[in-house]
Amino acid sequence: MAALADPNVDRPTDDIVDVLVIGAGASGAVVASSLAETRMKILCLEQGDWVKSSEFPTNGRDWEARRYADFDISPNRRARDTDYPINDDNSIMKIANFNGVGGGTILFTAHYPRMHPSDFRVRTLDGIADDWPIDYWALEPYFAENDRITGVAGLAGDPAYPPHEPTMPPVPLGKSGTRYAQAMNQLGWHWWPSDIALATTDYNGRAKCINLGHCTPGCAQGAKASVDITYWPQALRARVELRTRCRVREITTNQHGMASGVIYYDPKGVERFQPAEIVILAANGIGTPRLLLNSASPRFPDGLANSSGLVGKNLMLHPWPQILGYVEDELDGDRGPQTVMWSKEFYETDTARDFVRGYTLQFARGTGPVNEAITSMAAGRLPWGKDHHRIYRTLLYHRLMIGVACEDLPEEHNRVTLDPVLKDSHGIAAPRIDYTVSENTHRMMEHGIARASEILATAGAKNIGCSRTLLNSPGHLLGTARMGLDPTRSVVNEWGRCHDVKNLFIVDGSIFVTSGGVNPTSTIQALALYIADSIKKRLATLFD
Amino acid sequence: MSASEILTAGLTSTEFRDLRRLAGIMVPVSAEYGVPGADDETIFADIARSLGRDTSAVRMALAMLREIAGGDFCSLDVENAETAAMTLLSRNGPVVTALGRAVLQCYYRDDRVMRGLGLEAVAPFPKGRPLEQGDWSLLDAVRGRPRMWRDDRGTGE
């Protein structure tokens, strides 16, 4: 296959590679690492930097303040020079991500549930949305392999979860988990220690968790399984090349309609052409459609791989109300991993409810002094002036907080497009998000809020309040280049290859058909392993 | 100083003066709890140098405060200054939220405030924190329950 750049533009051209991966986050690391055994020449271009563990906030006294600055989950507020802006003004939920080696896993909470078997068959089981073209059981060995490489703390035997064997003991229940568990037992509702991608024992060279308590903005201990310290070391040892601060502008195609490589900006801002035999997109559910739409050409006028018109559509963000209350006893606060346990009591569809599908209840330990003050001030719980100190002392380390991880169903009007005005620092059109919460999800949210409030009341909490969506940004970016068998109704096939461009693959959350009611990283990574394996099995006929 | 110079240089001296008085009303000194106010010299210096991404919003909040005060906030007597401050702080929105964040993120990392809360004034890493296991016997009530997840391989239930 010839790899041709636009001959009319004078730009440096790099040596051709066999496989070019765009993005070094959760899925890019996995696919690069897995494909390394083929001995193909593999290159990954990442627009961000490596983040050293010594740079994470918990190293310093300003650890909480940095959550609102250079480690903010919003790229618009964080605004590092490696970030790109996102116009989310027309979205009730704000977008969270991280650009760097490790991607979103740098700033994830490491809650690590798998999607359930029923999540892949929502049309068949519940008559809504679409079934996936693959099922849970096709992914099961890849979930297990991913758990081994990642290192997952948890406990086997959960009656509400498909059988699996976590690789390490669960995180401690602590005072907070014990309080929740007592309430759940009193109500007769299911709970179980969460699967968390975090080392509770020394694991594959990673030190065990020492309860720094601020897992989300990076783990200074290295106990949290971000892919910069799990998959990337093994990929680099296997000779995968990773170039940082390289931002891809567009994917190019040749006269045969195949991907020929990418045009990118190197760390000095020089526009270059990187030819490749295979291009794999791993840029998340917003970055990937943005890049495909920015790769429009006379042959692909609506964007690359977009004959279905579905690139950027069906965005799912997981509405995630948080319900909190305060008890008289002092609890764990920010001392320990943020997440303790989950409940799947309301996960599967129940026809007696006024919505289909369901949600996970995610039980959090608490928060630190600054975050308690800021969030309580914003919610009106914490006054200014003479009563400030007295009230504050009833809040700090007395908080219980439950998140409701609602399944978000695909709707085409929820979408990523290119903003006509906003551009990144290289002049590349930025993404624009249009997103609303569906009526089904609204009903689900209210059901979850009511149940969580009931749990908190049973646990003895007072001052129970709720944040519905505006302050919540789980950073789950899904569905914008969906997987399917029908090229008119999907962007990639059942093993991640674009229907329209046979040497272009997508391995990130874009390919989700539905979202489940769980954090998606475990499923994203299992899918990436599965797609890598599919490529390896088909190398001789990959482009047929 | 031009508007663009003010924007790049941070707050003016008048704005800093207003912010300091406002901070002292927001989080006052407390003899009862043995903690300084947010207008304490050390804490306010931290607030002033840490405004960062909130500088513009804080400036807008201070402009709103002057409007509420009907002029110079710092010239008001104690009672009127508190009334003006509380009027501002009772307004919801991103500007007041940013103002609160700018003050609180520095106040609740001061050594004296930390000690006043009974907390150790150190970064979490490398020492870490203790965490008890909790009561795992509570899980006995859940173990052995019938399967709750739907197995799609058979009947679909």
Helix-strand blueprint:
The complex is a heterodimer of chains A (544) and B (157).
Chain A (H helix, E strand, L loop, with lengths): L16 E6 L3 H10 L6 E4 L29 H4 L8 E5 L30 H5 L9 H15 L23 H14 L4 E2 L37 H7 L3 E3 L3 E7 L5 E7 L5 E11 L2 H10 L28 E5 L12 E5 L15 E6 L4 H11 L8 H8 L3 E8 L8 E9 L5 E7 L3 H20 L3 E6 L36 E3 L14 H17 L7
Chain B lengths: L2 H7 L3 H14 L14 H9 L5 H15 L8 H12 L4 H14 L3 H6 L41
Helix pairs in contact in B: 3-6, 4-5, 4-6
Question: What features would you describe in this structure?
Answer:
- The complex is a heterodimer of chains A (544) and B (157).
- In chain A, helix 1 packs parallel to helix 6 (231-237).
- Chain A contains 11 helices and 16 strands.
- Chain A has a single domain, classed as FAD/NAD(P)-binding domain (3-Layer(bba) Sandwich).
- In chain A, the strands form 3 sheets. In chain A, strands 1, 2, 5, 6, 7, 8 and 16 form a 7-stranded mixed beta sheet that branches. In chain A, strands 4-10-11-12-9-15 form a 6-stranded antiparallel beta sheet, covered by helices on one side.
- Chain A has 544 residues and is α/β, with parallel strands linked by helices.
- The two termini of chain A are 13 Å apart.
- Chain A has helices spanning 26-35, 75-78, 122-126, 136-150, 174-187, 231-237, 284-293, 369-379, 388-395, 439-458, 521-537, and strands at residues 17-22, 42-45, 87-91, 192-193, 241-243, 247-253, 259-265, 271-281, 322-326, 339-343, 359-364, 399-406, 415-423, 429-435, 462-467, 504-506.
- The relative contact order of chain A is 0.20.
- Chain B is mainly α and 157 residues long.
- Chain B has one domain (3-120).
- Chain B has helices at residues 3-9, 13-26, 41-49, 55-69, 78-89, 94-107, 111-116.
- In chain B, helix 4 packs across helix 6.
- The termini of chain B are far apart.
- In chain B, 34% of the residues are buried.
- Residues 1-8 of chain B have low confidence and may be disordered.
- The interface between A and B is large, with 70 and 59 residues.
